[in-house]
Amino acid sequence: MDGRDVSSNKPNGSGIVRVQPHVGAAETLELEYYSDGIVAFKSTYFQNVYLRATCDPRDLAPGDRKPGGGGVVNCQYISEGPGRCSIQEKFRIHPLGYRGWVAIEPLAFPGRYLSLDAEKRTVTLQGVRDWQESVYLVFLTP
Question: Fewer CB atoms near the end CB (10 Å): N or C, the chain?
Answer without folding.
Answer: C
